[in-house]
Amino acid sequence: MQRLEALTWDHPRGYSALAAAARLQAFAESGLSIAWDKQPLEGFESHPIADLCARYDLVVLDHPHVGEAVAGECLRPLEEVFGAQVIARIEADCIGPSLASYRFAGSHWALPLDAATQVMACRTDLTDGFTPITWDEVTALSALTGKVALSLAGPHAILSFLSIAAAYGEPPAAADPDILVSRETGKAVYDLMLDLASRSPLSVREKNPIGILQHMALHDDVILCPLVYGYVNYAAPEQGRPIAFHNAPRQMTGGRPGSTLGGTGIGISRRCPVTPELKRHLLWLMSPEVQIGFIPSHQGQPSLRAAWQDAGVNARWGRFYENTAETLEAAYVRPRHNGYIAFQTRASALLRDAIDTCASAPGIIDQLQTMYREHRVAGGER
Fold first, then answer.
1. Looking at the predicted structure, is the pLDDT value of residue 364 above 90?
2. In which band, very low, low, confident or very high, does the pLDDT at 381 lie, cut at 50, 70 and 90?
3. Three-state SS for 59?
4. pLDDT-wise least confident of 221-230, 233-242, 245-254
5. Is the pLDDT assigned to residue 223 strictly greater than 70?
6. CA dist., res. 303 & res. 73, Å (int)
7. Which UniProt keywords apply (predicted)?
8. Are residues 74 and 212 in the same domain?
9. Which domain holds residue 141?
10. Are residues 346 and 359 in the same domain?
C-alpha cells in the first residue's frame, strides 16, 4: 500500500471532494492511500510553498505560488508526470485560464481541480431583483443604500484593485511586466475603491471572502459585494438565505468583467513517488464524469468547462456556474514570478492603510509601483 501525505485548505469546497474520493472502496483497492490534512485559507494564501512540499507529497496551491515553487525546485512539472499531450488536452477542456495559469518557465505545475474567480455576490431578495452590471451602477447602489461591501481583508484589497484595473481596460503588468498599472488608471481605480469603502459596512471590514458570504447569508446589512471569490456553497447554503452570483462589474455595458483568477490546483512535490496508481487517480479527478458528477455533489467547484455548462449542475446550485462563466473565461491571471506573493501581502496592507486615512491617489500609485518593481527584482526578474 502506497500512503501519501497531502494538504489542502480548510473549507468544504477545498476538502470534501478530495477526502470523499480517498474513502472510495475502489480507491482503497488500488493500493493507494492519501491522507488529506487541512490548513486555514490564510495559510493557503501565504505559507511558503517549499516548506509545504518538504512535508507533503501532494499540495493544493494557488497559481501565484508557482514562481516561488520553481525557484525552490519543489514541484514536479506535469509534463514530466503525464506527458505534454495529456496536459494539452486537459487545458483545452478547462474553463478560462484555469490550467494555463499554472504554466510558468515552460511547464505546468498543478492540475486545476477547482476553478474560481472574483464575481458579484448579491442578496437579490433585498434589491428587488436588481443586479448591477457596471461600476457606475455599483456606486449608485452603494450611495443609495450604504449596504455595498468591498472585500479588503488579507490579500483582497490588491486583488480588487487588479480586477477593477482589468475592467477599466488595463490588465496589470500585461502590456509591460515592469509596470503594474499606469498612473491614470491607477488613480481611477483607487478613487473608486476609496469612494465605495467610505460606505462599506464595518461588519465585514475584517472578513475574508468566506466570512463575507457567510455574513451575507445570515444578515441583511450587506446586500451586495461586487468583487468576492465565488463559493458555490452559498448559492444554496445549509443556513441562511441563498446568495445570487453574477458576473463581475464592467466599466461599461458590453465591456470586460474585471476579475482576478483564483481557484486551486494539485501540485506534486519532488518528494512524492509517482506511481501508475497515483497518475490514474489524479486523471480520474480531472475526468468529465467526476467533474460533472462527483465533485459538485461533494461541495466542490469543478474546473472543466463541461461542468460549468451542465444543466443539472446549474439547477442544483442556483445557476451559479452559468451566471458567472463569462467572468471566469475572461479572468485576469496574476503575475507568477518569485516574489509576487510577498508583493501581494504588502500591497494589500498599503491599500488598506491608504483607504483608512483617505490618502491621495498619486502617492499611493507611485508606492505600489515601487513596491512591485522591488519584488520583481528581489525575485530574480529584470
1. yes
2. low
3. strand
4. 233-242
5. yes
6. 26
7. Plasmid
8. no
9. 118-260+337-378
10. yes
